[in-house]
Amino acid sequence: MEPRLKTRLRETIAPELMKRFGIKNQFAVPMLSKIVVNSGIGRATQDKKLIDDAVKEIGHITGQKPVVCKARRSVAGFKLREGMPIGCKVTLRGSRMYEFLDRLVSIVLPRIRDFRGLSPNAFDGFGNYTLGIAEHTVFPEVDLDKVQNIYGLNVTICITGKSDERSKELLRLIGMPLREA
Predict the structure, then answer these.
(1) Cβ contact 73:88 at 8 Å
(2) What is the structure's pLDDT at 13?
(3) What is the DSSP letter of 80?
């Protein structure tokens, strides 16, 4: 069964974008290519167990096993040595990507405390959007009774459209609550 967001993108959002921007070719319409969920755990230099907890939690949230990221070089001021685990990330594509974005827009963002919308300035110039989530506990997959540490997440939404304006319109039509600039 196809994710409901993917169906909505194909049937209603893509034709709307084609009409709004005067796009003639359906393959030129900006679409989602991947979503990267990333968490850096700075305290992992002192406690190795934090990385294992973060990998488990992010695995529950995304439905996919994260890759552990290691330090590229040593930094004495941070007590960091080359090769030490300092974070984890997951790259979502296909059905899991659509399901994750659907949950993010409809369930997670409304649960964030004091939420006033996402910044419209977080585009990178190539049409990709990055947002930060301060606490991973806003995801419904997380069992609050078993949480020992709270992690922040960065979610990068990679979009095939090459302009920020078209990507912004795609995210608006999906339902992302972007603030007015």
Answers:
(1) no
(2) 92
(3) B
Q: Is 121 exposed, middle or buried (0-12, 13-18, 19+ CB in 10 A)?
A: exposed
143: domain CATH number is 3.30.1440.10
- pTM score > 0.85 for this model? yes
- Residue 166 in tokens: 């078209």
Q: What is the DSSP letter of 79?
A: T
Structural domain contains residue 20: no
Count Cβ atoms below 10 Å from residue 86 Cβ, excluding itself: 20
Q: Which residue ranges in the chain fall short of pLDDT 50?
A: none
Cα–Cα distances (Å) from 61 to 65, 139, 152, in that order, read 10, 7, 13
pLDDT at 14: 92
Amino acid 23 reads I
Q: Is residue 16 part of a domain?
A: no
**Distance from C-alpha of 181 to C-alpha of 168, rounded to nearest angstrom:** 12
Quote the number of domains for the chain. Answer: 1
